[in-house]
Amino acid sequence: MKIDRIRGTCSPGSLIWAGTQRTKKAKRFRKYLALIGRRESISITTLAQAMPVSVHKACDDLQDMLDSGILETGYLDMSTGRLILSDEGLQEEAPPAPEPDEPEPEEDVLDMNDDDAVLGEIRRLNDDIDDPVMSQKIDRIGEITGKIFAYQKQSPNRAGQLRSFLSYYLPTTLKILRAYARMEEQGVEGENIRSAKARIEGMMDKVVEGFEKQLDKLFQDDAMDIATDVQVLERMLEKDGLSGGGMTLGG
Question: Please, are residues 132 and 199 in contact by the beta-carbon 8 Å criterion?
Fold first, then answer.
């Protein structure tokens, strides 16, 4: 009976020790709250170092705070080692986005208004293409293109006449010649390559003719102006007796 009474009795020392422990825990909890502040997420290791306590001790303290309601919402995410203070629940890591396919390298886009670059590209293609007949026609295309650029510099106010030539005909011609050069360098004459090359070779006369007509068309207004000037000059000469056999000295 005496033993039972001793076991059922709490000594004053034990009560003081328990109260001290509660006071220490309350102080730790207040410090945790101060360190957490308004954050919705914080590293447990960071909290442990700031307290300072071990990470294991910090986990125990934080779980006690969650269980007792001191921290109203949240959980310990041990996969990331963080205290999450949010009511959104566990966030699954989003699957990694598929890596985008690497774009195929694009050919350098020529500025069709850069005459040096365009004429240089025509010369390069001519050097790459071995067929002598094609080379002769490319020479002619380069010659006419150079004259068209020269006209553009001399008469910038008529640039609108070259809009279709610079935006479609010239770049498309260069694209076709690049394709021809690539097929020629393969060193084989399969059916597809042979038919494609023949198609390009067959249209080159029309391309050259089109470039020549474009150059001639640029001088259409000049030709009309010249015709008008000649007609006026002839009339003035005739009026003043300065044409034909009727011209005399001294009136």
Answer: no
CB atoms within 10 A of CB 118: 21
Pairwise CA distance, residues 150 & 208, whole Å: 18
User: Any residues with CB less than 8 A from the CB of 125 and at least 6 apart, and which?
Assistant: 138, 174, 177, 178, 181
Top CATH class of 19-84 equals mainly alpha
> pLDDT per residue over 169-216, tens digit each?
999 999 999 999 999 888 888 899 999 999 999 999 999 999 999 999
CA–CA dist 124, 119 (Å, integer): 9
Q: Alpha carbon of 124 to those of 28, 55, 127, 151: distances in Å?
A: 79, 70, 5, 23
Q: Kind of pairing, strands 82-84 and 75-77?
A: antiparallel
Of the candidates 78, 69, 181, 95, the residue with the CA atom closest to the CA atom of residue 135: 181
